[in-house]
Batch of 2 targets.
Target 1
Amino acid sequence: MQVNKLSFLVAALLFLSPALVLASDNHSHKEASDEVTKEEINEYIQHHIQDSHDYHLFTDEESGTHYGFPLPVIIWDDGLHTFMSSKFHHGEKVVESNGKYYALHHSKIYRSDTEGHIEMDEHHHPVMSARVLDFSITKNVLNIMAIGLLILWMFSKAARSYKNGLAPTGIAKFLEPLVLFVRDEIARPNIGEKHYRKYMGYLLTVFFFIWIVNLFGLTPIGVNITNSISVTFGLALLTFIITQFSGKKEYWMHIFWMPGVPVLIKIILAPIELLGVFIKPFALMIRLYANITAGHIVLMSIIGLMFLYSNWIGAPLSFGLALFLSIIELLVAALQAYIFTMLTALYFGSAVAEHNEH
Amino acid sequence: MEKLLNDFSVGLFFWQTLLFLVLLFLLRRYAWKPILNSVNEREASVKKSLDEAKNAREEMERLQADNEKILKEARQERDTILKEGREMKEKIIADARDKASEEGAKLVEQAKVEIENQKMAALVDLKNQVAEMSIEIAEKILRQELAEGNKQEELVQEQLKDFKLN
């Protein structure tokens, strides 16, 4: 009972704290300017959905202290450069490493001169030559590691519980129906009884990874894994590669020489189908990225509205709306994981399909 | 599109792919395989148990049907036996009655014959006795008659008279 109450309290705090963080941030501003501007909120949101090189929890703007911890920076720039992100002092300082200078610009690391000036083009974007290959352990990378470990711990615990008997016990009771859902509702109907087994590992991993990562995205610690295009690109690329490598004769035949249509149409269809091969995973990538990013931006904007219209009507209204949207986002978190896995299974299914009727 | 490309981070992509593949490998080995195997095993055992239960139920139904059949047969058998018994009883009774009446008739017949015989014997006896008695009486009469001398004479005379006539 005691544990349940405690975990409820923790969960409640986690879900409420985006508002709290924003509130504390803006509170200090209020004393200075007595007004929260749209620009501040916009900047806060932009900052929130971006990856960063340090694990920033919150800032006490009155004293100017940032609470959080630094992360290691790993750069490949004609040699390996490694240092801790704390050296940037939150973008205020230039870092010298092995005779080269680096500075932060919009949470990204660029090559700079000794003064920290980054060479810009006419659109005020850093020029290509200023870019470096950045393999840093960023906030998102750390979050992926942490959530990966959590998933691994959860499911290996569930797997171990089967050693005592065939009936699920403990955490497996909760996870088993989800695993069975992926197997019976996603893999089996889309891939088919004959081939689905070898794709189960990938489908289950993708489903639970996206879902759990999405859920963590709703917590205020600022986990933005699935709303970075690099992550969704990585996932979609794996789906693409697995699909192409499991493509059977029938699959390629349907792309390059569609059976059952006149030759002229075969010739017209081939480039379209070939384009489709790339569009499918591309759509997967964009769909997940856009849904989660949009969800975060809308939710944070509405929370921001609370401070913009801090009167008796506007604030409760936007609070209610934010609460409603948070619940919708919970659904979206699962839905996007489901859609991604479902479409992945569908593509695998089309790759291994054997149409005997043709 | 430009923003997308700008947001793209090679490092994050690299780490994501690497970590995801490691996670995939570890989960396959330590989670999905044991979980799915256990689930499959359980499903198989549940299916087997259900099949067995179905078979047992069918067997039971079969046995029950057999029992019913046997019971029915036994009941029929009993009915037949009872019927046969009744018939036999009636036959025996009828037979006994026939035999008894036959025997009775025979006895009556014998008795009649015996009575007739007895009657005849008695009659013969009576005749003999009457004859004896008659002779005795005749003797006594004769003796009395012939006690007087002339009387004998008269009789002889009378007899002789009859002879003469002849």
Target 2
Amino acid sequence: MLIELKDVNKTYNNGQPLHVLKGINLSIDKGEFVSIMGASGSGKSTLLNILGILDNYDTGEYYIDGRLIKGLTEKQAAEYRNRLIGFIFQSFNLIGFKTAVENVELPLFYQGVSRHKRHELAMQYLDRLGLADWAGHYPNEMSGGQKQRVAIARALITGPKILLADEPTGALDSKTSEEVMQLLSRLNREEGVTIIVVTHESGVANCTDKIVHIKDGIIGRIEDNREHNASAFGTATIMK
Amino acid sequence: MRDVFTEIWESVRRNKLRTSLTGFAVSWGIFMLIVLLGAGNGLQNSFFKGGDRFASNTMMFGGGWTSKPYDGLREGRRIRLDEKDILLTGSDAFSDNVDNVIATVGVNGTASYGKKSLSVYIEGNYPERASMEKIEILHGRYINDKDIKDRRKVVVLPQSAAEGLLPDNAPLEDIIGKHIRVGNFSWLVVGVNKTDRMRGNEQIAAPFTTVKEIYNKGEDVDDVTFSFHGLDTEKANEEFETKLRAAINLRHRAAPDDNRALWIWNRFTQNLQMSTVGSILNVALWIIGLFTLLGGIVGVSNIMLITVKERTHEFGIRKAIGARPWDITKLILAESVTITAVFGYIGMFLGMLACQILDKTVGQAKVAVMDEQIAMLVNPTVGLDVAIEATLVLIIAGSLAGLFPARKASKVRPIEALRAE
């Protein structure tokens, strides 16, 4: 198993204690394309933060590729995030004063890759995502879809084991959303990238092969969706 | 390294006004530091101008008047040194410290050459005095060993005396090889030295042995000068002086601790005291300068805090994609040091420029003190050592300014930073 969560609990102690994750058990295999679905407040964002080593959990165990992720120093966490995980965010989170190619290069910069080599690699990834012509542009000169593709290139460049996408289509129109989801599923299908998408949109979830429903901090149903017919809104489009 | 500077440039470029206003404060601080130190150096140089006329390891003593009754004799007796005092100073009793011992003996007289004449003091000297008192020979030579041995009637004139004797506008070297008259004797001029304004009248040097014989001085000497070694502290010098005073005083039947019977002029301790005053002045100027700089540093720290606040979200992104805390700390520290260093160097450059201007203007101005033209500021500039020290100060100051903001930036947790807008 690539990802294994065993009885993971998380409580926030801001004034009134809030038990957000109440014993999460989840296994995700290499090459899977999974979505985690739930309403807001269900704990799906917290789960994603824990999966992405952005946040700690209180009790339980979390393994990536057999490595226990627990009690890490900030430095170790940063290195694991850099090498194991690629992030895709709803608001793209590109750095505004850096060009597309510089944004894509950044994770390699933190690995200490030489200037020349990381530029070359970043150009390759941008090219694969059809953005070679936009390499020198700043994020505010690009459309939402282009920005998200730059973010995907940045997430992929280190060859991570897991791609974590937090509402990747949340800020996009339906046509672009569909393109982005198709891109993700193509990456999963053709290159075997393990992808976990957190969403509250059933249309987005329907693009994935497995849907994990989370409600009130507990995993409910795990739906096999290889037929892509789970959406209540239809099978072919992402409804907005 | 280039990546770091690219990052800094990107950040500075976005905040030009803010950065340059703060930078101005840093430049001002360093500017003041350099100008203060430069002016301080100028002041010290003008103080020390008198001090370095002599080799610093020489002592001079001469007879005074006794102030205490001793050995059956009353106070108020004149002490006259003689050649036995030279021998005593050079004897085994002091040989641990004393090197060369020389003495002078002289008389007043009138020198004349052609139609001109002036009153002079002709002093019998030894060749060693040239190095002990750093006598600067402009033309010809100083007294030499052969002059002493053969009791030659030769003299070395100070520049002012040579000018006084030569016809107007004649070149100085014209007097070399000419004979002048002093008293009833004719003396060959062998050299001209730079005039020492601290001396009273025109003092011309002749061989010790010649003066002694011509003027019938017998055993008498006016003062004794010697060079020494191995007395490195003020305390060691004091002990030595006490011992020397006791020995000389006893020879002349004066109380061993009678300070007025023998005056001792120790150039080493005098220089030591002067340099202590100098270093206190220096420290005071550094403190004033550093406090001025402090204002600039607080400014830099302040803008770095604002920068950190503004860039929290960006740091969150960086952390999410793998920036370690140190990477973030480094970013802020490097920016802080760079801003401080760049503007500091501008200030340092302008400060050095100001010192040069000071040198060309105020540095040339002279003030009349006791018939002598004294420059208030001599070479009011700072050396390479100060430039290096100031560089260190800038780097340390920049690091200090960035430290707190940088720590703050590196401590923000990525999820909180990502949430920030």
